[in-house]
Specification:
This protein is α+β, with helices and mostly antiparallel strands and about 800 residues long. The protein contains 28 helices and 26 strands. Strand 20 and strand 21 form a beta hairpin.
Length: about 800
């Protein structure tokens, strides 16, 4: 692998063709890693995609495709020349167009490959059926035996089986030969050797039975068609000189069927990301030089004015310039209710305009839009490897050679120790059964399919998980630490109470808001907003002065207005209601005292309200067995009041921004596995320090780079849903791995005949091939259950 330390790196995602097992993925991965200019390569068997980081000065995607081809496989590459500089937004739009073209090319190639496999399967099935009738019909339906046991039957079976093996099953032999040329072995090797052994043995028995008799003393040559004398001869251990064409034909046909079923099931695992990609509208109505025109989405530039009519999708991210409407954002955030939008509000591309007409100025286009960032994040997550996968990868690397050794040992043992008249057929059938039943595919699919479905299901509900490592860590969590402002609370102070003393409430609020009109203090802004919400008429203050650290004083309509804290009133010789101050502090509210013409007129209480969903979300976390702490820079009294409202276990108060990561480190030192939940920007150091960083965003405020998990919707209930989804995904991975391991651990010894001395029962190669074909399908089907995972905030659980 080249050292890229001094070189610029780029990333290429290469869809792969021709992979059939984890050993294939390992071989491609090693070939890419050894390629000049490549700094890292990861091949995901479930997604059939290679993710390669490389130096553009040394190599490019076309050269990487050649590396894949030399390894015996193929890759799909977008061969269009890079776009020249096209102004702001041009290059990224072209990049998205190229990615769309690559996806279309991949879909077309996979559809053609699926159709080719489908055609081969149906031809194989049509030819295998008469072979099965000839070989086993007389045994299953004895009255048919005289009709089926005709002279030359073995030649008919030979004629039918040959195209099944060498036309329909050609890819097994070409794959095995390609692997052999690279001094490797894979699933194709096992199938090719097993079916070829059964076919060649039967061919020799058909053409020269005496040669077999000479090779296995004690086996009598009964002619080229032993079934004519014994209808069971072609499929019963112990019958001299039986042929096994049906074994070769059935194995090929059943494995082709299994690959078709697996391909169909695996296509469903990528349904979530394809649905996200499909949300992107193809055109946009753009205003240029006073004329509205429909243009391809790739031609939209930053700063363009767009017209979005009711029922249409918002083409790109932007800001509303004119108009008002409601926007359905459920496809990206999971929020079921439409969101009201007016001038100045941001809108996200691919969301649906429901009611009014909007003029929108494009702010993010191409790969910079929220939708494309989500698609990119999900692609990276689905291409990642969880730590739990390493064991499966290690075993897969040694699996095929180990199976070959076991098969050879099985053949030698039974050839030497089976009854003399049975030894060659017995040894052959156990040899073939061991080769055919072994399934490295199930091991290779166990982890990545679950990650694909889990991360895709999360993305559909606004839960963006960065990769397998984040999934695996999330299920181990013991403590969740929540930032207060913007996470537990709304992050915007509001007036909660107006307490008056001999004064009209609305008049007090109007005078205070008029005095605060020029203030930039959050409390003053909250008072002004409250007055505007009540439609009170505000006036400009005639005089205004700030009292540093205490409040303001102003003259409004000739009246002196003093606004501030209790200390300011006491300094002016006015009474501050201490009992009221104490009560409001206990309720996590900040009292703002108002005096009019040197008379204490009342108190305006301001607070950062707790989100309606916060208490329910924290209860969900508690039900999951997690401890919940709150981290804030507020004073301890206010912090504890908020903690009491929402049921938080532990309060970490008066913590400065640069001390938040140290608090996380202390919890970790105490043995806790910690998730930090914050806005993803101000809390970046703490998010990075935590075992799992969870960023809560809303709309375009998606802090993808800051955390392991990002919640597109600003709802704390998504934290519990994300953790539950992670737990369900890891549980699914463990189920898959257990099934894959137990299948091979039990199946291979049974195929080798360990039960025969005790029960007289031997596994047929036909049953072995059916089991192998269905094993990987079972793993993928189990992973697909995650698509039904309920991520509704109120009941995140596996369905």
């Amino acid at each position: 692998m080249s050292d890229p330390s001094t070189l610029e790196t780029a990333r290429a995602d290469l869809p792969l063709l021709g992979m059939h097992c984890a050993a294939c993925a390992n071989r491609i991965e090693k070939a890419l890693q050894k390629s000049p200019g490549v700094s890292s390569a990861n091949v995901n068997f479930a997604t059939t995609q290679a993710t390669v980081r490389y130096s553009p000065q040394v190599t490019d995607p076309l050269a990487l495709r050649e590396v894949v081809r030399k390894a015996g496989y193929d890759a799909i590459v977008h061969e269009a020349s890079p776009a020249a500089a096209e102004g702001e937004g041009g290059a990224v739009s072209r990049g998205v167009a190229a990615a769309a073209e690559l996806r279309e090319a991949e879909d077309a190639a996979r559809a053609a490959d699926y159709e080719r496999q489908r055609r081969r399967f149906f031809v194989a099935a049509a030819l295998t059926l008469p072979v099965a009738v000839l070989a086993m019909g007389g045994h299953l339906i004895p009255p048919l035996a005289p009709l089926l046991n005709f002279s030359g039957r073995a030649w008919v079976e030979l004629g039918l089986t040959t195209p099944v093996l060498f036309w329909a099953g050609r890819e097994f032999f070409t794959g095995a030969w390609s692997a052999a040329r690279h001094r490797a072995a894979d699933m194709n090797t096992l199938v090719a050797i097993g079916t070829l052994a059964a076919y060649l043995y039967s061919l020799v028995v058909t053409i020269a039975p005496q040669a077999v008799a000479a090779a296995a003393p004690g086996v009598e040559a009964s002619g080229v068609d032993p079934a004519a004398a014994d209808p069971h001869a072609a499929h019963t251990i112990g019958s001299p000189m039986g042929v096994y064409y049906e074994v070769a034909a059935f194995v090929v046909t059943l494995i082709l069927m299994g690959r078709l079923l697996e391909a169909r099931a695996r296509s469903k695992t990528s349904g979530a990301i394809r649905a996200l990609v499909g949300l992107q509208p193809r055109t946009a109505r753009v205003e240029r030089e006073g004329v509205e025109q429909d243009l391809p989405i790739e031609e939209v530039r930053v700063g363009d004015l767009l017209r979005v009519r009711p029922g249409e999708k918002v083409p790109v991210d932007g800001e509303v310039v004119d108009g008002s409407s409601t926007i359905d954002e459920s496809m990206l955030t999971g929020e079921p209710l439409p969101v009201a939008k007016t001038a100045g509000d941001t809108v996200i591309g691919a969301t649906i305009n429901k009611t009014g007409s909007l003029r929108v100025r494009a702010t993010q286009v191409g790969s910079d839009t929220v939708l494309q960032q989500i698609v990119r994040l999900v692609q990276e997550a689905q291409g990642s490897k969880a730590p739990i996968q390493r064991l499966a990868d290690t075993i897969s690397g040694y699996f095929v050679p180990a199976v070959l050794c076991i098969a050879v040992a099985t053949f030698v043992l039974w050839f030497n120790f089976a009854p003399l008249e049975n030894r060659l057929p017995f040894a052959l059938l156990t040899f073939v059964s061991v080769l055919i039943i072994a399934c490295p595919c199930a091991l290779g699919l166990a982890t990545p399919t679950a990650i694909m479905v889990g991360t895709g299901r999360g993305a559909q509900s606004g839960i963006l998980i960065k990769g397998g490592e984040a999934l695996e860590q999330a299920h181990r969590l013991t403590t969740v630490v929540l930032d207060k402002t913007g996470t537990i609370t709304r992050g915007q102070p509001e007036v909660t109470d107006v307490v008056v003393d001999g004064f009209d409430e609305s008049e007090l609020l109007r005078l205070a808001a008029s005095a605060e009109r020029g203030s930039e203090h959050p409390l003053g802004e909250a008072i002004v907003r409250s007055a505007e919400q009540r439609a009170l008429v505000l006036v400009e203050p005639q005089e205004f002065a700030a009292v540093a650290g205490h409040g303001i004083e102003a003259r409004v309509e000739g009246r002196r207005v003093l606004i501030g804290n209790a200390r300011l009133l006491r300094e002016r010789g006015l009474d501050a209601n201490e009992a009221l101050t104490q009560r409001l502090a206990d309720e996590a509210k900040t009292p703002v005292f108002v005096a009019i013409d040197d008379f204490p007129a009342g108190v305006i209480a301001v607070a950062d309200p707790v989100k309606e969903s916060s208490r329910g979300a924290i209860e969900q976390l508690h039900r999951s067995g997690l401890k919940v702490a709150m981290l804030t820079g507020d004073n301890r009294r206010t912090a504890e009041a908020i903690a009491a409202q929402v049921g938080i276990d532990r309060v970490l108060a008066e913590v400065l921004p640069d001390g938040k990561s140290e608090e996380i480190r202390k919890l970790q030192a105490a043995g806790e596995t910690v998730a930090m939940v914050g806005d993803g920007i101000n809390d970046a150091p703490a998010l990075a320090q935590a075992d799992v960083g969870i960023a809560i965003g809303s709309g375009t405020d998606v802090a993808i780079e800051a955390a392991d998990i990002t919640l597109v919707r600003g709802d704390l209930r998504g934290v519990a849903a994300a953790i539950a989804l992670s737990q369900a995904t890891v549980r699914n991975i463990r189920q898959n791995l257990f099934f894959a391991f137990i299948y091979n651990v039990l199946g291979i010894p049974i195929a080798a005949g360990v039960l025969y001395p005790l029960t007289g029962w031997l596994l047929s190669p036909i049953l072995a091939s059916a089991a192998m074909a269905l094993s990987s399908v079972s793993v993928v089907t189990n992973a697909l259950r995650l698509r039904g995972f309920a991520v509704a905030p109120s009941h995140a659980q596996e369905s």
